[in-house]
Amino acid sequence: MKNQQRETFSSGLAVFFATLGSAVGLGNIWKFPYMIGANGGAAFLLIYFLCVLFVGLPIMVSEFYIGRKTRKNVIGAMKQLKPNSAWKSIGVFGIITAYLIMFFYTCVAGWVYFYVFKAIKGDFSGVTVESSKAMFGAAVVGPISPIIWQIIVLTVVSAILIMGVQKGIEKVTKTLMPVLFLLIIICDIRALMLPGSSEGLKFLFKVDFSMLTKQSILMALGLAFFKLSLGMGTMVTYGSYFTKDNNLINTSVKVALSDTLVSVLAGIAIFPAVFAFNMKPGAGPGLLFMTIPLVFSKIPFGNILLVLFFILTSIAATTAMMSILEVLIAYFTEEKGLSRKKAVIFNAIFIAVIGVLASLSADSSSILGNIKIFGKGFFDLFDFVSSNILMPIGGLLIAVFMGYMVKKDEIRHELSNHGTLNIDWAINLYYFILRYIAPVLLIIVFLNSIGILKF
Ligand code: PFF
């Protein structure tokens, strides 16, 4: 199995869209816009940029390096770079994190698919605050329908992945990412035409440093991780499919900037409408599933907009899930010798079975809503352990590994594409941030997120 012919993406553009497809996800559409608004608008955006620059980018470049240099899955890659060492744990953490995220992400994605279906059926015409809440409650508490939609989501993602890297991931992301951009722009234009939309823009873009707290800095750092799919080997896996002439630093910068742009555009689509109807912007699923149908249903042609909005959200969620599942597929095909098809089916079934726990515990009135482990239901536990514990640990280990275990000459050689790119300054900057800034910031966030260090 060792040196089998491995697929790669076919071009730089394919690399860009696939990677952006991983970064853009549910995070952009409900987490990011709300956080900008609640934490001082553009002031938060500035902090987020700094987090991306000082932590996100160096880790992304490192993951691409590890992937493309070894052309292996995340465990295989670490074994190749440091045989028989504990560094393999980066890969092991990655695999565990991929499962945990998939368990709950497929559940939320299931609600999104369901909402596309409901919007197409016209279920939201004449919706009121009460009925919108009731509909979301019914969609989440189920119990059968959320599980069925979760299985539909997994079937779609699996069908794409079975087709392979070029015919599956590359083709779908190259087609759908431009569609996603177009749909967001349409929603933006409509939202900006609403009377009173300037209030929403003010919420999003005010520069209010007084609203920034230490907590917002930590939130921005955590968000940068989740947003850019870092710390769990996703970018190692995609990096292993990159073309050999790809400029890894350049790709990282382009992906981080485009991903942030999508988040801001999503905010522009959402907040003017929320404010035009005098609603309070709420966080998380509430905003996405209860508020959006309500506000869009009041706009002329709002139902079409609603369908488009949920379609774009489901595209974002689907391409993100493809990248998470690919971490597992690459591992099972290369290390365990499974065929691609078997690896996909086996993992999809496993995720569906355990993911049911997330679906049945998403709300306190769900069937398993009252079962608590360490004070959290299954849904919240999967989310918390993956985003707040494993991803930062993974990121820290990657930063320390690359900064202190790999020779700078080797890094320079790979990042400059064997000396063909003249980007010494960028490599030096990357290396400095990687060694001296990223690990320190990560330790602070991690200690805070598990409650050891309190601000
Ligand atoms: N970046 C995705 C989002 O913002 O929704 C989430 C994600 C995708 C996290 C892939 C981790 C990952 F490996």
Word description of this protein:
- The chain crosses the membrane at residues 12-30, 42-66, 87-114, 134-163, 175-197, 217-239, 260-279, 299-332, 344-362, 389-406, 427-453.
- The protein is mainly alpha-helical and 455 residues long.
- The chain has one domain (12-96, 105-138, 151-354, 395-449): Hydantoin permease (Orthogonal Bundle), CATH 1.10.4160.
- Helices cover 76% and strands 0% of the residues.
- The protein is built from 19 helices and no strands.
- The chain has helices spanning 12-23, 26-38, 42-70, 74-81, 88-121, 129-141, 144-162, 165-192, 197-205, 214-227, 234-239, 248-276, 284-297, 302-336, 340-359, 378-405, 408-415, 424-436, 438-449.
- It is globular, with a radius of gyration of 21 Å.
- The model has no long low-confidence stretch (mean pLDDT 91).
- The structure holds 4-fluoro-L-phenylalanine.
- Residues 22-23, 25-28, 101, 226-227, 229, 232, 234, 320, 323-324 line the site of 4-fluoro-L-phenylalanine.
What is shown here, in short?
The chain is mainly α and 455 residues long. The chain is built from 19 helices and no strands.
Sheet with the most strands? Answer: none
Name the shape in a single word.
globular
User: β content, as a range?
Assistant: under 5%
Q: Report the CATH C-level class.
A: Mainly Alpha
CA radius of gyration:
21 Å
State the CATH topology. Answer: Hydantoin permease
Secondary structure: helix percent: over 70%
Number of strands: 0
Which architecture does the CATH hierarchy give at level 2?
Answer: Orthogonal Bundle
Subcellular location: Membrane
Membrane topology: Multi-pass membrane protein
Keywords: Membrane, Symport, Transmembrane, Transmembrane helix, Transport
Family: Belongs to the sodium:neurotransmitter symporter (SNF) (TC 2.A.22) family.
